């Protein structure tokens, strides 16, 4: 047949010298004829050659759809039904093979893959088809995509139906190679295809199309009187009609073709049938450009060529039911699957598909089943020293391995939750290169699963990115992450400077600043009016500091401050000191009475900087994690979980380690026993947690993951955890650690300090205002007050100053009531004043008293009386040895006074 079409094409080009060729029908025929068109510059238009191998060359135009255009619609179906494995069944030809690479890529995008390709010979026998079907029956996959010529497809479905492969659990999808000619299939073939889904281009039922169908049937009856009515035209016939119209419109657009052909010289060939005798069309370039640029609304839809071929718009998803089919939905490149052909994202667009009738009349197939000749799954289990997660210990009596552990119980519970029975056996895996029968590394075990040596792996296997590149993990069933556990050491209760620890150093500095500032304010305000804050600089500093410190203990009963600003500052200081004293006492009591511990190491950076050794579990991926975190390989040591405590006890420089890195589930088990002197610190290095391992693309992964959710969200997980880990209350080792938050810090009390500072600023502003106001009246006060006299009590419960201002119109009267021995006087004064005794003195004006003697100066006067040396009798009511001071005005009216024994 290809030779016939090749000969016909050569005849048309050589003898008739056609300007364009419509055809050929098949992709195999088209390959040779396309080469002829490119050699002769004659456009070749095909409405039925759909293979992707037929690239749109310069003089080839595909007015049909490329087979690749339907691949996204098929992938959307696979994704919609959540199938993970698909087996394509195709014929062994360019047409059959052309779609496969594109289908593989599209399925990968929807997380599905092709585990096997079923190839049927291009001219098969029934035995060859049956052999391939029997092979498919022994496999797990139950989703098939059929892409072959209609004749071979019809034979395939007849034999598959007889083999029971169009029954419950199977899913079949046919490409448009069958879908486009479905109406031409016989009833026996359609009956064997019940429940099959198909994909084909969708043709809108327009008035132009209906008119074409009517005219087609009318002309057929005229040309074939008495013959039965023909079948309804198929889409290839619509495309052929539109192709003829496209050439007609292109010829009209290009104008008359008059240049003809350029014939090669006869001397270049010895044979009239030689291809070298074919001429070259001089009008071909102009015509092919006109054809490629032609656009119109044809009966099959809009005719538009992009890169020399027609573009896909809408595909119909049909479902074979009874003697025909029904529409299950539609697919568009923009909106995906829709229940109706309305190309809109508005409220009328119904996402998804209509009800589908599957083979056997059952519900949606899950896409895979246990094969008829299948066997139990081989589940790899690591062999390692005893631990609660997985333990494959060798039974000395039987010589076999007994598999137990938390992970094993979880897997058994998950298998019981599966919607179907999954037979399996545990296979302990050891490293043949190790004498101790220990397991190989977990990453190597995962590689064994990826190579299909084992069907799955169960154990404490962590989900990490490197392993997920070659195996599939289920959802995790444990908490994820890696942390480090370190020993704890006694903290502050035995420290020499423990009394400083309750308060943060920054807060100590703030307290000292407030202490000094309060003293400065009191000294500044009181120094002029109080001799207590006067004197030398050293005396002022000591007295001020002592006064402030005394205020911390208790408020003085006889305060030495008189001014309101200094009292205000003192009150602020006392309130602040009272608050700090309460907080300090509580924190210090906690430190001294409770066992205080702190981690020996804070984080990984500290370990690296100190050059400490770091431990990890043997065979764990944590080693690679530490290496990625810049830990020196020579500073890492591996241990089994039961060796952690001893290694941490020895320490980094005594053959042990300073910290142990492991996954959080293991650390929880360790801390449940050793939490008293250990703690988990540092950041959490996130991982995926523990998961079960399956080969890439395993159909079990999705169902096992759903079963894991049922187990972990129900009560079953609680009983399993209680079985292996008991009812232990989680150890809270952090309760014995004084965290930075329990220490009184500047940040926790800065509000109090801000209020204190604000009050000081307000008081300072008021004091400055008053000071400036009083300064204006200072001159008048100086005129009124000529002198001041301070009398100080030197005994009693406290110190007190009595200050008088002595004006120009007043004087101070001093009386002595006792028989006092005369004060020694100079010889000249003794002669002048022998036998006399001072009884009293009146000081007025600018006067002073020095060393017990009365001296006068300025306008003051001094009177002395002596009563013959006889002792004076004190006035009634005055005790012996009393001193009376009277402050009187110019009329001798008493203003104030003081009497002291």
Automatic annotation (TrEMBL):
Record-given protein name: Glutamate receptor
Topology with respect to the bilayer: Multi-pass membrane protein
Assigned protein family: Belongs to the glutamate-gated ion channel (TC 1.A.10.1) family.
Boundaries of every Ionotropic glutamate receptor C-terminal domain copy: 378-727
SUPFAM superfamilies: Periplasmic binding protein-like I, Periplasmic binding protein-like II
Its job: Glutamate-gated receptor that probably acts as non-selective cation channel.
Keywords: Disulfide bond, Glycoprotein, Ion channel, Ion transport, Ligand-gated ion channel, Membrane, Receptor, Signal, Transmembrane, Transmembrane helix, Transport
Species assigned in the record: Urochloa decumbens
GO terms for cellular component: membrane
Predominant location: membrane
Pfam hit, one: Lig_chan-Glu_bd
Cysteine disulfide links: 675-731
Membrane-spanning segments: 507-525, 752-773
Places the protein is found: Membrane
Biased composition range(s): Basic and acidic residues: 850-869
Region: Disordered, residue numbers: 824-901
